[in-house]
Amino acid sequence: MGSIWELDFYSRPILDENQKKLWEVLICESPLDTRTKVDSVFRFTKYCPSTEVNSVWLRTAIEEAIEKAGVSPRRIRFFRRQMNNMITKACKDIGIPSLPSRRTLLLNQWLQQRMEEVYPQEPGYQAGTNPSVRLDNPLPQRLPDALEGQQWNFVNLQAADFADMHEWEIGFSEAFPLELVQVSPETRIPGILIFSPRALPLAAWMSGLDLAWLRLDNSQGARLVLETGATESWILANLRNDQTLAKAKDFEAAKQKANGVHFIAVQSNPQEESFAGFWLLQEVNLP
User: Fold this and answer.
1) Do 75 and 202 have their domain in common?
2) 16-75, pLDDT tens digit by residue?
3) Are 170 and 277 in contact (CB under 8 A)?
């Protein structure tokens, strides 16, 4: 099946000998399984002079990373939308699909660690933060009628329960090791279970969206919004009564206590033991 890589290519708070911002590419493998050891995943980093910032330099750096890893990824995710054209072209020239995504959990954590521990030790370091990647997002879209679940429930699992996730019968899924997000085994992980007679098509559609996170939105009436890709979002459910809204608020509170970790699962009915889809998610603030 192949691995997925996460990539960032941007200027860092470091000036070179010409007083120009130094750029850097960071590449790491996405941990896709709850059993993955974070310290064992592939990582690659290389500084780039500001005079050489282009898709050709980036393509060469990715090729170096592939040579070092000994294997080519099946896909590369990146969160920094300002770099969309350059990253997309570099990946296309190598023949690797690229995907704007907010599901770059290890990369986000690694970049934060380098901001705090690595860059301040470099000559030419300039204190301050890099420009934010936050841009305006389009309004949430309605789910296609054929993909709406007939029933859904808020549920909870303990973090320790995910240790056996690789043994569960699941059609479509993606997860990450909980050591990455620093939650204890007894932490309550909130989630939502969606039931639909078209569970497998619904799970397949959701899998193709590159799920980011689920959140309670009160901007235009209470509703659950599913964030996907780089900017897309979908109205998963409108919350029309006080009891449901109270459960949604409990979900948000539990999510915050779990460092943003939560999950979405899809089943054909409440009696079913297998899952058509199951995704472990984390809501994060991008660097």
Assistant:
1) no
2) 988 999 999 999 999 988 898 898 999 999 999 999 999 999 999 999 999 999 999 999
3) yes
Retrieve residue 133's tokens. Answer: 């990647």
Residue 70, in any domain of the structure: yes
d(CA 105, CA 281): 9
Asked if 230 and 102 count as a contact pair (C-beta separation under 8 A), the reply is: yes
- Type of residue at 99: L
Which residue in 162, 117, 154 sits closest to 13, CA to CA? 117
Largest pairwise CA distance in the chain:
66
**Are 69 and 161 within one domain?**
no
* Exposed / middle / buried, residue 224 (Cβ in 10 Å: 0-12, 13-18, 19+): buried
- Single pTM value for the model: 0.90
Task: Report H helices in the chain.
Answer: 55-69, 84-94, 105-117, 199-207, 242-257
Rg (CA), the chain: 20
E-strand ranges in 86-239 read 98-100, 141-142, 151-158, 170-174, 188-195, 211-217, 223-228, 232-238
Residue 240: give the domain boundaries. Answer: 141-282
Indicate if 152 and 97 belong to the same structural domain.
no
Q: What is the mean pLDDT of residues 161-188?
A: 93
Start-to-end CA distance of the chain, whole Å, equals 30
